[in-house]
Design brief:
By secondary structure, the protein is α/β, with parallel strands linked by helices. Helix content is about 25%, strand content about 30%. The chain is built from 12 helices and 22 strands. Helix 5 runs parallel beside helix 6 and helix 6 runs parallel beside helix 7. The longest helix is centred in the C-terminal third of the chain and has 10 residues. The termini are far apart.
């Protein structure tokens, strides 16, 4: 079924008659601006080709046993050349196919401003870099949320960063590629996304991939985000190395930060928490800070002294080291001469 919602109208096209109805009422269907997918059948997706005026397409179909080729879905979506908002949740299904071929269709929707795709837990393969180069052609994009966790995606994160960097109007970027086969230099990723100077939210979950790189070079890109309010980075189980002093300097330049979450567990990060505490003092709105350095050489020594009185508006925070979890919520509100 394809349910179409337009103002006071609510129309349902049944699977067996979706294409026939679309042909008979083509002129009328082109006036429809919003659509909500109730299934992902071939007939339903085919009907999208008749919706030339579609601006908003949504579909929440998680865990419904959907199978089929992702590329076919992308091809049909590409026929909606006026699309501005795309939100699809196909998580926990049996969808197969090539991510880049899906991107070929999406790239034809040059008017896209908001994209949210949840493909977690399927059988999707393909090159993340090729897909991102196609997405990078959507120059009006302001919000991009892509969840590919637990698939078979390959490619270079560096290329993704440079491609997405072409979307200079981007304000929200969320990428979850945990448990895939992603490679690349985190430094180049940071340099690439630094072109998105308007970012207010940056979330990257790259846990358990094959990333490498120097923290200093990655942090040089982070320091350009004057409007960044939320930063969430999960590099657990990769091969990132460097000093927390570089991270502290980057944080100090993100003065609009309200929420900071960093997971460097099982990487090669060294140093102590003093530079991070110094950086947080430059973020007067910071209300939440969580850092995981378990499995590194960083210890809990000096955390209380470093974070005492860092941010008067602080609400919640913790630092996880090999010695355990240190709750810094109370510390951050106390006065300190450090």
């Amino acid at each position: 079924q394809l349910r179409l919602d337009v103002g006071p109208f609510a129309v349902v096209l049944e699977q067996h008659s979706a294409l026939r109805v679309a042909r008979q009422h083509r002129g009328w269907l082109e006036q429809i601006h919003e659509a909500c997918l109730v299934d992902a059948s071939e007939a339903t997706l085919g009907a999208l080709q008749q919706l030339g005026g579609l601006k908003v397409l949504e579909g929440s179909l998680a865990g419904q046993g959907i199978c089929g080729q992702l590329s076919d879905c992308g091809h049909n979506i590409g026929e909606c050349s006026k699309l501005q908002e795309l939100s699809l949740n196909f998580a926990s299904n049996e969808v197969e196919g090539n991510l880049a071929k899906f991107g070929l269709g999406m790239a034809r929707c040059s008017t896209l401003m908001s994209v949210k795709l949840d493909f977690e837990g399927n059988r999707i393969s393909g090159d993340l870099a090729l897909f991102s180069h196609l997405v990078g052609s959507c120059s009006r994009l302001e919000n991009f949320d892509l969840n590919l966790r637990g698939n078979q995606i390959t490619g270079d994160l560096s290329d993704f960063g440079h491609a997405i960097g072409r979307c200079t109007k981007l304000r929200t970027l969320r990428l979850n590629v945990q448990d895939n086969k992603i490679v690349g230099e985190v430094a180049d990723f940071g340099v690439g996304i630094a072109q998105c100077a308007k970012l207010t939210t940056l979330s990257l979950n790259a846990q358990d991939n094959k990333l490498v790189g120097i923290l200093f070079q990655f942090c040089s890109g982070l320091g350009t985000f004057a409007h960044l309010a939320s930063l969430d980075l999960n590099f657990r189980g990769n091969r990132i190395y460097g000093n927390l002093e570089d991270l502290g300097r980057a944080i100090s330049r993100c003065t609009a930060l309200q929420s900071l979450s960093l997971n460097f567990q099982d990487n090669q990060i060294v140093g102590d928490m003093v530079p991070v505490a110094r950086g947080s003092r430059c973020c007067p709105k910071l209300a939440s800070l969580h850092i995981n350095v378990q499995g590194t050489t960083i210890s809990a020594d000096g955390i209380a002294r470093a974070f005492g009185g860092a941010c008067p508006e602080f609400c919640a925070g913790s630092i996880v080291t090999n010695q355990g979890d240190v709750n810094i919520s109370a510390l951050m509100n106390k006065s300190s001469r450090f």
